[in-house]
Specification:
The complex is a heterodimer of chains A (110) and B (113). Chain A has 110 residues and is an all-beta fold. Chain A contains no helices and eleven strands. Chain B has no helices and eleven strands. In chain B, the strands form two sheets. In chain B, strands 2, 4, 5, 6, 9, 10 and 11 form a seven-stranded mixed sheet that branches. In chain B, strands 1-3-8-7 form a four-stranded antiparallel sheet, with no helix packed on it. Chain B starts with a strand and ends with a strand. The chains are: A mainly beta (110), B mainly beta (113). The interface between A and B is medium-sized, with 25 and 23 residues.
Chain lengths: 110, 113
């Protein structure tokens, strides 16, 4: 079945530093979604990317979909303590279901 | 509408007992999903409903698991003869045609002792 690799598994940064997480698939994707899960919370939808090479921004967050539609990245500029959590990418796994990556857990030193 | 509601938030049960969880999706959403999440992992798909029809069920779901969505509204997930390996967070999510992304509930954390 569909699988997606997400790296790194963990990332610890100083507040104000940038952060990037990457998601890779061996197959071409129709779209990719990103979610954030705060500690003790549930996943919250951030964005969906559909087009090859697409770049979308949400304040300090920049999402990119690769030209070949096999990879994606989420970049956070100048992290803040509110950015702490685990970031998941999710890809279509057939029918209407999503397959989630393992996630990148972001911790921040204030 | 306040989003997706799940009940209970926590459940501790003895091995071998049956448990049932409830999910109330966003009322306008016709799709409902159950996922399971263990510590340090991403959510794993269990099953999916479109309206009242269960359209897909993961191979992860053994015969001890059953889910229903009568009348296409709320859904229940039952686990019979629970085992310690069933301990996890059970997440419900809903979505709708033309809406991007899932809306997840807060989950039910199951601990089997």
């Amino acid at each position: 079945g569909q699988q997606v690799m997400q790296i790194p598994q963990y990332q610890h940064v100083q507040e104000g530093e940038d952060f990037t997480t990457y998601c890779n698939s061996s197959t071409t994707l129709s779209n990719i979604q990103w979610y954030k899960q705060r500690p003790g919370g549930h996943p919250v939808f951030l964005i969906q990317l559909v087009k090859s090479g697409e770049v979308k921004k949400q304040k300090r967050l920049t999402f990119q979909f690769g030209e070949a539609k096999k990879n994606s990245s989420l970049h956070i500029t100048a992290t803040q303590t509110t950015d702490v959590g685990t970031y998941f990418c999710a890809v279509p796994g057939g029918a209407q279901k999503l397959v989630f990556g393992q996630g990148t857990r972001l911790t921040i030193n204030p | 509408d306040t989003g997706v509601s799940q009940d209970p938030r926590h459940k501790i049960t003895k091995r071998g007992q049956n448990v049932t969880f409830r999910c109330d999706p966003i009322s306008e959403h016709n799709r409902l999903y159950w996922y399971r999440q263990t510590l340090g992992q991403g959510p794993e798909f269990l099953t999916y409903f479109q309206n009242e029809a269960q359209l897909e069920k993961s191979r992860l779901l053994s015969d001890r698991f059953s889910a229903e969505r009568p009348k296409g509204s709320f859904s229940t997930l039952e686990i019979q003869r629970t085992e310690q390996g069933d301990s996890a967070m059970y997440l419900c999510a809903s979505s709708s045609t033309g809406v991007n992304g899932y809306t997840f509930g807060s989950g039910t954390r199951l601990t089997v002792v």
